[in-house]
Design brief:
This protein is of the alpha+beta class and about 190 residues long. Helices cover about 55% and strands about 15% of the residues. The strands form 2 sheets. Strands 3-4-5 form a 3-stranded mixed β-sheet, with helices on one face. It has a two-stranded antiparallel ribbon with strand order 1-2.
């Protein structure tokens, strides 16, 4: 059976979601004004649904402080409290800035570790090219926007003549001062 091309995606919103979105839009655009009464029976008729999804949608709107429900009396569009809005916005922005600082610190820390590992891998690779097997650990400092190696520890059986060549490579290629490069023999397991 040939199936025609799909047109619009099926709308899979519940009655509550449709009512919520519509009433929310009416409040935001000014169709419903602050202090204006909202009757659940009228909304039920308008949307051709029972009062249950209307009440559920109104509960969500109340939790968002867009409406005020006064049991036994009326449901009305909430008055806008500009000062409370500003307080909420300031608190929200403070939490965003705090989270941004936290994430920046995490990223910087992870980036430093990765860069130190890359410098160490470079040293191990250069040692292997010289014919020595070793492991390396680097310690970086931040200089402007860059992480630069400031200290190197090489562990392994690297003979003194190869140590001298490796030191020259590390000083020349990575800019680590010679006095900040340490060698140690591999410890027996």
């Amino acid at each position: 059976m040939p199936i025609p091309e799909k047109g619009n995606d099926l709308c899979r919103l519940s009655a509550k979601d449709i009512i919520y979105r519509t009433v929310c839009e009416w409040i935001i655009t000014g169709v419903l004004r602050p202090g204006e009464k909202i009757l659940d029976s009228e909304l039920a008729r308008h949307f051709s649904v029972s009062r249950t999804p209307v009440r559920e949608a109104l509960q969500v709107l109340e939790s968002q402080k867009l409406i005020c429900v006064r049991p036994g009396r009326a449901t009305v569009v909430a008055e806008l409290d500009v000062e409370e809005g500003w307080r909420w916005l300031e608190d929200y922005l403070a939490s965003v800035h705090s989270r941004e600082a936290e994430l920046t610190q995490t990223v910087e820390s992870q980036m430093k570790v990765i860069i130190e590992q890359e410098y160490a891998a470079y040293i191990v690779d250069k040692a292997a090219q010289l014919g020595a097997a070793c492991s390396a650990r680097t310690e970086c400092r931040r200089d402007g926007g860059l992480y630069l190696p400031q200290r190197v520890e090489v562990t392994g059986a690297v003979p003194p003549p190869l140590q001298s060549e490796l030191v020259q490579i590390i000083v020349r290629d990575l800019g680590v001062p010679e006095e900040q490069i340490d060698f140690s023999e591999e410890e027996a397991p």
